[in-house]
């Protein structure tokens, strides 16, 4: 009987030990921590960038700058116009961080500023446009050349109404004008040398693509040229050799009048400028480019 009592006592003791307080488990998250995808721009960027130059590149640069600053709140980017020649000179002299040019950099400019670095961020077509009162089914490049040289002075000579032509052009130093002169006004003389016909001396000269658009839209019997990015319903684009001025037609090679949009730095870009240029050439930047211009990637 005593042996049974002792056995019962031992078993009770073991049961009490087993029912003691259980250690609390280590705290663990109820959900896995989400891993954020890497941002398109570098983290922790700060500082200021100044851009100046082409009025064609300017509105695109402003959109790109806005997107980049949204990703990098500590960055400020100021964008000014002035024309492509201003962009090249400002970059070459180092008075801005990035210059803008809507044309190829001239050999004379590269001789003057040998450290210039050129970054093509987009391509842009140049459209021939008329006042809405003028309807032209198409023009050849030769006809466009003759009109802007002042050799054809009446629309009736190119299939339009009997009306004296008012020529509207960009000012000297404009990248759009330089590209137009190279792509349309250039010809070879009898000796095979390249020459450029001068723009008609009576042309109405404007300081920007926007001014060209406004002048053509409000001046009867006028014709001008401007960037694809400035086309709207206030003016009438003219097909060249039957091909409409559209982004798709530039991409498929059927529309002949287009040029590069460049950004320029004095030597290798500094870290903040490099980050901005990398963003422009990234898929996110090129998506913004594609809204109005032709991507490089």
Reconstruct the topology from this structure:
Blueprint: H1 2-18, E1 47-53, H2 57-71, E2 75-82, H3 84-93, E3 98-101, H4 107-112, E4 116-130, H5 141-148, E5 166-170, H6 175-185, E6 186-188, E7 194-196, E8 204-206, H7 209-218, E9 222-227, E10 236-238, H8 247-251, E11 258-266, H9 271-280, H10 283-289
Parallel strand pairs: 1-2, 1-3, 5-8, 5-9
Antiparallel strand pairs: 3-11, 4-9, 4-10, 4-11, 6-7
Description of the molecule:
The structure is a single chain. It is built from ten helices and eleven strands. By secondary structure, the protein is α/β, with parallel strands linked by helices. The strands form two sheets. Strands 1, 2, 3, 4, 5, 8, 9, 10 and 11 form a nine-stranded mixed sheet that branches. The longest helix has 17 residues. It is globular, with a radius of gyration of 33 Å. The N terminus is likely disordered.
**Helicity, in percent?**
25-40%
Envelope shape: globular
- Overall pLDDT confidence: 87
> How many separate domains make up the residues?
2
CATH fold description of the largest domain: D-Maltodextrin-Binding Protein, domain 2
Tell me the CATH superfamily of the largest domain.
Periplasmic binding protein-like II
Number of DSSP helical runs:
10
Q: Secondary-structure element sequence?
A: HEHEHEHEHEHEEEHEEHEHH
Largest pleated sheet:
9 strands, mixed
Provide the low-confidence segments as ranges.
1-39
Distance between the termini: 96 Å
| Strand tally | 11
Q: β content, as a range?
A: 15-25%
- Given this structure, which CATH class of the largest domain is correct? Alpha Beta
Determine the structural class based on helices, strands and strand pairing: alpha/beta
Specify Rg, calculated over alpha carbons. Answer: 33 Å
Indicate the CATH architecture of the largest domain: 3-Layer(aba) Sandwich
């Amino acid at each position: 009987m005593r042996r049974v009592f002792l056995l019962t006592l031992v078993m009770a003791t073991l049961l009490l030990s087993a029912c003691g307080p259980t250690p609390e488990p280590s705290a663990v998250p109820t959900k896995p921590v989400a891993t954020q995808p890497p941002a398109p721009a570098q983290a922790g960027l700060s500082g200021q960038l100044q851009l100046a130059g082409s009025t064609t590149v300017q509105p695109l640069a402003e959109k790109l700058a806005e997107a980049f600053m949204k990703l990098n709140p500590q960055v400020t980017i100021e964008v000014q116009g002035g024309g492509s020649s201003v962009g090249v000179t400002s970059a070459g002299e180092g008075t801005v961080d990035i210059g803008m040019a809507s044309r190829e950099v001239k050999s004379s400019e590269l001789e003057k500023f040998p450290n210039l670095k050129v970054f093509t961020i987009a391509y842009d077509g140049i459209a021939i446009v008329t006042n809405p009162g003028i309807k032209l089914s198409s023009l050849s490049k030769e006809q466009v050349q003759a009109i802007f040289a002042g050799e054809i002075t009446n629309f009736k000579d190119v299939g339009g109404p009997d009306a004296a032509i008012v020529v509207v052009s960009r000012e000297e130093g404009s990248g759009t004008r330089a590209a137009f002169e190279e792509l349309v006004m250039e010809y070879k003389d009898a000796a095979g040398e390249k020459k450029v016909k001068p723009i008609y001396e009576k042309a109405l000269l404007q300081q920007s693509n926007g001014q060209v658009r406004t002048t053509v839209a409000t001046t009867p019997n006028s014709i001008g040229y401007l960037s694809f990015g400035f086309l709207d319903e206030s003016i009438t684009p003219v097909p060249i050799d039957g091909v409409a001025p559209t982004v798709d037609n530039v991409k498929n090679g059927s529309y002949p009048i287009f040029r590069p949009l460049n950004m320029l730095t004095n030597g290798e870009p500094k870290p903040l400028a490099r980050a901005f240029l990398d963003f422009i050439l990234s898929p996110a930047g090129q998506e913004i480019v594609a809204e109005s211009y032709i991507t490089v990637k």
